[in-house]
């Protein structure tokens, strides 16, 4: 922790696997929080309701993995996990900002609208965090660059937060009024 404090990171994201299986996560989070300005948690949401809501106040933002609508999400993450992710977002509402974090792949690249709808219903923020083409238990990447361009354009036009570096290109095009 001394080494990390010396780096003085702005954001640290506790993620995994599933970080909530770590027995002492919340005590560890208190220690980590002293070394950064923002502390994030990325979880699949399946264990969130096993802890008191106020434990999550340590986090400046909580990202819950959501891979699309119910069928797509459960195909990727197992039966019953869609409702757990949705319920986790509802459970955490008002405690810390919550986003649904989606990894785009060939199985869910058509689910951006569904993710937006679910986010609106739960008060979460839709976010695309990984444009790598791989996700939990799905190793069929998107190889067509036109599909990638379409995904970036749709997410940008819908106002979805997107960490992909190519998103900056779309932001510049939006500012200039040029089509993506």
What does this molecule look like?
This protein has 180 residues and is α/β, with parallel strands linked by helices. The chain has one domain (2-176): Aldolase class I (TIM Barrel, Alpha-Beta Barrel). The protein contains 7 helices and 6 strands, in the order H-E-H-E-E-H-H-E-H-E-H-E-H. The protein has a 6-stranded parallel β-sheet with strand order 1-2-3-4-5-6. The mean pLDDT is 84.
Order of helix and strand elements from N to C terminus:
HEHEEHHEHEHEH
Helical residue percent band: 25-40%
Low-confidence stretches: none
Report the biggest beta sheet as strand number plus sense, adding barrel if it closes.
6 strands, parallel
Radius of gyration: 17 Å
Kindly report the average pLDDT value.
84
Please count the helical segments. 7
Measured by DSSP, the beta-strand proportion falls in 15-25%
Shape estimate = globular
How many structural domains? 1
CATH topology: TIM Barrel
Number of strands: 6
Task: Please identify, by name, the CATH architecture.
Answer: Alpha-Beta Barrel
Classify the secondary structure makeup into a structural class.
alpha/beta
CATH superfamily: Aldolase class I
Summarize the structure.
This protein is an alpha/beta fold. The protein has a single domain, classed as Aldolase class I (TIM Barrel), CATH 3.20.20. The chain contains 7 helices and 6 strands, in the order αβαββααβαβαβα.
